[in-house]
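Reopening this ticket.

The earlier resolution said the output was attached, but the attachment link was broken on my side. Pasting everything inline this time so it's all in one place.
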Amino acid sequence: MTSTPATALVVVDLQNDFCAGPVALARYAGDPARLDAVAANTALAVDRARSRETEVIFVRFAGDVRYQGRSWRRRDRAQGKRPKCREGSWGADFYRVSPMPGEQVFTKRACFDAFLSAGFERHLVHRGVGRLVFAGLFTDVCVDSTARTAFQKGFHVTVLSDCTTGLHLPDADILSFMAVVYGAHITTQDRSWTPPAGEEDACQTPGAPASKAASG
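Inline output:
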């Protein structure tokens, strides 16, 4: 028999330096109201997940120079970029919604992909998570990087289109890309976070050992 894996809502980098203040507004070329809408909708998604006892996982970015690899530092020098979300700064604080006691927080130290943060994948496997629902910033950077790895590791991917936005690429383009390449389910926070019944079968949890029947 197979069992239905758990779902987890992953809130990516909803932090001040990406959402509000001079650093965020200087980087984001779109309408700042879009960032506010993303944060507000993500807060609604978090409330919905908590009310349904769906696990909420927070991922945050720390861009301190001491965490940056040589290629990261070279790029920043060439493009005049300054570190963002430095540990202990206001810019690193969560925006609009924060973890509750007991909710897991994982830190990406100068990297895009949450799977590169210590313990992230191990926690998902331990909790029996099979679907990751993504909200947060930015669709074409950290959300996409994490969703790409998730797909390759066997997790189903859902992206809440009203809870994220692109930094460099149009929203429609990156969401379409994720749907085609990762088979991502694109929806909104107020609709179903899983595809209609029958579109996918109950699957073995990523990282779990195969049963004798499945392996035979």
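Reporter confirms the inline version is readable. The first strand starts at residue 6 and ends at 12. Residues 157 and 184 are 5 Å apart (CA to CA).
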